[in-house]
Amino acid sequence: MSDVERGPERIRNIALAGQAGVGKTRLAEALLEAAGESETSQLRKGTPLGDSQAQEAMLEHSITATPMGLTWGEAHINLIDTPGYADFQGMALSILPAVETVAVVIDAERGIDVSARRMMQWLAERGLCRLIVINRIDTAPERLPALLESLRDQFGPECLPLNLPAQGASRVVDCFFAPDGESDFGSVADVHEMLVDQVVELDEELMALYLEQGEALEPAQLHDPFEAALRQGHLVPICFVSATSGAGVVELLNVFERMMPNPLEGNPPPFLRAEVQKETGLKEEAELKQETEIKQETEFLAQPDPEAHVLAHVVRIEHDPYLGKVALFRVHQGTVTRDTRLFAGDARKPFRVGTLLRFQGRRPQEVERCGPGELCALTKVEEATLDSVLHDSHDEDHIRLRPVALPAPVFGLAIQTTRHGDEQRLSEALAKLVEEDPGLEVARDGVTQETVLRGLGELHLNTALERLGQRFRIEVTTSIPSIAYRETIAAPAEGHCRHKKQTGGAGQFGEVFLKVEPLSRGAGFEFSDTIRGGAIPSSLLPAVEKGVRQAMSSGALAGYPLQDVRVTVLDGKTHPVDSKEIAFVIAGRKAFLDAVGKASPLVLEPLAELAVDAPGGAMGDLTADLTTSRGRILDTRSLGDQVSFQALVPLAEVLDYPSRLNAMTGGAGTYSLRFSHYEPVPESVQRRLIKAYRSPDDEQDH
Ligand SMILES: Nc1nc2c(ncn2[C@@H]2O[C@H](COP(=O)(O)OP(=O)(O)OP(=O)(O)O)[C@@H](O)[C@H]2O)c(=O)[nH]1
Ligand SMILES: [Mg+2]
Question: φ, ψ for residue 293 (rounded to 5)?
Fold first, then answer.
């Protein structure tokens, strides 16, 4: 197939999402196989974006998002298999802006769970088209009617099946195109009518034909309103399938081809363009420049026009030992060829594309060009980072995709190399891991001076450490995880600093008066000024902000980053000769610390949402354990002799929860932990943390 024929009309970009173990990876295999891409996963070894295979097989969980391509009928389907395990959500969520449709896979036996509910809501908020796929219908045919009902109950009456299981779930019958088969439950004709009713609601002309004149409508007439219904969330189709028996697999491919939106029919993800103020007065400071240049962002949509400027978005990064840095990206506008010169983000210098890859089955193949709607990869692309926008003109600088809210990495491990002299290699390897996975973060602990790797859970950190060993050959030891405490203030206050230094030649002078106020939890940081008459010239205000930000990141109380604070610069004074940037950075920092000291500062700790399933007999022990861990039970349910409960508990108290749970339940309990929010620590804990910390400012002159 030549590249020219592959216009956006023929592309479908679909991601498989949903809870761990529902069968997404197995389903992806079945779909590839049915489409004649029978080479299975063995071939992934040594191919880019597939290197975690061995680790995935050991774990029996996907840990990264894997792109695949298949051709079915008239359609080229780019399929992305995402990891369902909560620890790998960073990888799963960050790739979703590359697709029009997300198929949320649900296990027929286990039914709807918390993660499916969260995913459905998240997708609705992002405006992605949703498809529900009920997999493993071979395992629980008798539960399917109730599951269908509860899906409609929980996610709304717009959830309607496109097919129904038949002959004891050994196959499925179509309810849309040829609604005359026999199903295991429910009438195919009734479901067909419900589907048509739902779809025509969005098209007045068709509605008139259908309802008033009683005309039967052809599927082709329904195509456009069907797509509109998907885009507006007015219809969420449901398909039944068994990845292992093969029931419904071909039918699902038909649904992808005939009914799922192509890139011209979906809701495109909004881009943000920053309007830039060129005057900064502080050009030598790259970091400052960025903060002060960006003024206001406006939203716009890319045009899927092959002739337009290129706008593409990087959704995955992998460091490959042979191919260098590989970037998977979605073209939203324009056409990328091997000779295109692309800029990554706001980079001044372009790079030449060189090798352009597209996926056929699981194998990447070199192609000449990729137009709008395509999912492709670049190799040896040092310039790109996850989430960066690739473009071919400086007119498209200062553009980013509307950011995706990702879970916060709060589970930490302090890491030391076992071999002396490996420190540099360790920090380079960690930087690569963090670049690949937005759920990981690496930080230098301000209190202990240790390198701390943070992730979304225990399994997440363990797999990252395994990669360190396997890919980078770095052996490490780990120690008690440190907690990602934060600081904030509880009251407004004012602060002042007059910074003056006279040493030999040129002096330094800066004076700043400012005010700090608490913001609501999670609001972050705001900076403004009410300076009148140029008491501090606008060219020096960024220096004040820089000083404030320095103090914010190193903390004022116990060395943890400050958050949820608004800072307003009220007044100040300059000196005609000595008022340099550095003077205002220092004055800004110290005035801020002065204000925070009077603003009832406090330490916040991360609270985790703990969900536990365990035998009923262990409930007494579990509750007592939670009480001593400062936990609060939110909800308890019993199902037969099992109990399940949800609780909020300080993360610091549950770092060894897996072993405690094992001991209390004789190995029969399971749990999941995820970050919930920050809350102030009890006073005794705050005193201990402050005592353990010596501020660097204590050692400097004031
Ligand atoms: N009986 C049956 N088993 C299935 C079916 N689909 C998948 N499985 C099995 O379910 C298990 C989990 O399947 P995976 O495909 O690894 O699940 P996943 O959704 O990719 O899980 P994560 O990667 O952790 O998100 C495997 O043992 C599969 O063979 C099915 O339709 N029927
Ligand atoms: Mg998987």
Answer: -70, -40
Region 199-213: what's the mean pLDDT?
Answer: 85
Kindly report whether the global pTM for this prediction surpasses the value 0.85.
Answer: no
**What's 616's DSSP letter?**
G
526 pairs with which residues across the strands? 566
Choose which CATH entry (3.30.1130.10, 3.30.750.200, 3.30.70.240, 3.20.20.70) describes domain 603-686. Answer: 3.30.70.240
Predicted confidence (pLDDT) per residue in 24-49, tens digit: 999 999 999 999 987 654 444 445 56
Tell me the two tokens of residue 61.
């969980």
Choosing from 16, 22, 26 the residue with most ligand 1 atoms within 8 A of its CB, the one to mutate for a pocket test is 26
Query: What are the residue boundaries of the structural domains of the chain, listed by start?
Result: 3-259, 271-401, 411-482, 487-599, 603-686
Give the CATH fold of the 487-599 domain.
Ribosomal Protein S5; domain 2 (3.30.230)
The three-state secondary structure class of 664 is helix
Q: For residue 289, what pLDDT is reported? A: 43
Domains 271-401 and 487-599 share a fold: no
Spatial distance between the Cα atoms of 73 and 79, rounded to a whole number of angstroms: 15
Ligand 1 lined by 23 (C-beta under 6 Å): yes
105-114 tens-digit pLDDT: 999 998 887 7
Q: What is the DSSP string of 134-196?
A: EE-TTT-GGGHHHHHHHHHHHH-TTEEESEEEETTTTEEEESSSS-----SSS-HHHHHHHHH
The pLDDT > 90 percentage for the chain reads: 60
Cα–Cα distances in Å, from 149 out to 104, 237, 248, 255? 17, 14, 20, 22
Q: Is the CB of 22 under 6 A from ligand 1?
A: yes
Look at the chain and count its residues: 702
